[in-house]
UniProtKB/TrEMBL annotation:
One of its GO terms (molecular function) is dihydroneopterin aldolase activity. It catalyses: 6-hydroxymethyl-7,8-dihydropterin + ATP = (7,8-dihydropterin-6-yl)methyl diphosphate + AMP + H(+); 7,8-dihydroneopterin = 6-hydroxymethyl-7,8-dihydropterin + glycolaldehyde. Its EC number is 4.1.2.25, 2.7.6.3. Keywords: ATP-binding, Folate biosynthesis, Kinase, Lyase, Nucleotide-binding, Transferase. InterPro entries: Dihydroneopterin_aldolase, FolB_dom, GTP-CH-I_C/QueF, Hppk, Hppk_sf. It comes from Nesterenkonia jeotgali. Residues 251-262 form the 7,8-dihydro-6-hydroxymethylpterin-pyrophosphokinase domain. Catalyzes the conversion of 7,8-dihydroneopterin to 6-hydroxymethyl-7,8-dihydropterin. This is Bifunctional folate synthesis protein. One of its GO terms (biological process) is tetrahydrofolate biosynthetic process. The keyword Transcription does not apply. In the N-terminal section; belongs to the DHNA family. CDD domains: DHNA_DHNTPE, HPPK. Pathway: Cofactor biosynthesis; tetrahydrofolate biosynthesis; 2-amino-4-hydroxy-6-hydroxymethyl-7,8-dihydropteridine diphosphate from 7,8-dihydroneopterin triphosphate: step 4/4; Cofactor biosynthesis; tetrahydrofolate biosynthesis; 2-amino-4-hydroxy-6-hydroxymethyl-7,8-dihydropteridine diphosphate from 7,8-dihydroneopterin triphosphate: step 3/4. The lineage of its organism: Bacteria, Bacillati, Actinomycetota, Actinomycetes, Micrococcales.
Length: 325
């Protein structure tokens, strides 16, 4: 690349902070601690500077969500491995990123000496991906995580995620089965468990809409939270979901297919497009009850799902489809 065409611009995110469970010692993985990440992206945003259009530049919102998911996701022994994972994930997220510098801070590192911070910095560019596409480390196997595989052949940590599916328009049972099949056919996604289908009364929204059919599934994926969200919304669209009030959708109203991301590993994400764990899942019997059928020992935000389910207003209305009247 000539000096005239080489990207000279940068986007910086400083002090992205979240709780992670990375470290060599058992208590670090068990109790967790604060990690802080600084990211610099080398890009060319001349087009965005002229157009003032988000489509012409890299979304720092998505980069921030990717970093947060990395911090809160599957644990690594070393912050060097976390920095490597984040740098490569960032480069793979958008081909317009020519290079990135990722600094991982561990201010609560278990040192007996008085100190302010421990940090490592990874500097990677697209040539690093091409030269060594399989260099990314998987998390520590002792932490109970299984390495995944992306289409380019670069191993990354699989994350367990729970999805809730619902439908009350059209042939809903067929729609739910079709949606699960679509997820099974998605690269970098494995369907691990499926709950029985439940028939449930509508909660919120118009009172005169049909009953819903609901199902909960558990997947393992190497997709980022935003990639998984885009995939679930694409499956909704394939099943004729008209998302948003501008398309005539009524809040909590009837729909051909709804797929919610309930949890994504241990990640806590709060953005305009995605909140994980799902902010209303703990009050929804139509999510929690089928989840207990699939996994009686499941937990959500540190509480047993079975316990949460019993406290929901619609607990008694959720019935297995084959037993429903």
């Amino acid at each position: 690349m000539s000096s005239r065409s080489r990207p000279r611009d940068s986007i910086r995110l400083t002090g992205l902070t979240a709780t992670g469970h990375h470290g060599v010692f058992d208590f670090e993985k068990r109790e967790g601690q604060t990690f802080r990440v600084d990211v610099e992206l080398t890009v060319d945003f001349r087009a965005a500077g002229r157009s003032d259009d988000l489509a012409d530049t890299v979304s720092y919102v998505e980069i921030a969500e990717l970093v947060q998911a990395g911090i809160t996701g599957a644990p690594f022994d070393l912050i060097e491995a976390l920095a490597e994972h984040l740098a490569r994930a960032i480069l793979r997220s958008d081909e317009r990123i020519a290079a990135t510098e990722v600094t991982v801070h561990k201010p609560q590192a278990p040192l007996p000496q008085s100190f302010q911070d421990v940090s490592v910095t990874a500097r990677r560019d697209r040539a690093d991906l091409l030269a060594d596409p399989a260099a990314e480390l998987a998390p520590n196997p002792a932490a109970g995580q299984t390495p995944g595989q992306d289409p380019a052949g670069a191993p990354g940590p699989e994350v367990a995620a729970v999805l809730a599916l619902g439908s009350n328009l059209g042939e809903s049972a067929v729609t739910l089965a079709s949606a699960v099949t679509a997820l099974e056919g998605t690269q970098r996604v494995r369907v691990l468990k499926q709950s029985p289908v439940a028939r449930t009364s509508p909660v919120g929204g118009p009172a005169d809409q049909p009953d819903f059919l609901n199902q909960v599934i558990e997947i393992a994926t190497t997709l980022s939270p935003q990639e998984l969200l885009r995939r679930t919304q694409a499956i909704e669209a394939e099943h004729h979901r008209a998302r948003g009030a501008e398309n005539g959708e009524i809040r909590w109203g009837p729909r051909t297919l709804d797929i919610d991301i309930i949890s994504y590993g241990q990640a806590r994400i709060s953005s305009e497009t995605l909140q994980v764990p799902h902010p209303r899942a703990a009050q929804r019997g139509f999510v929690l009850v089928p989840w207990t059928w699939m996994d009686p020992q499941a937990h959500l935000a540190g509480r047993p799902v079975a316990e949460l389910a019993r406290d929901t207003a619609d607990f008694d209305t959720v019935q297995p489809l084959e037993h429903a009247p």
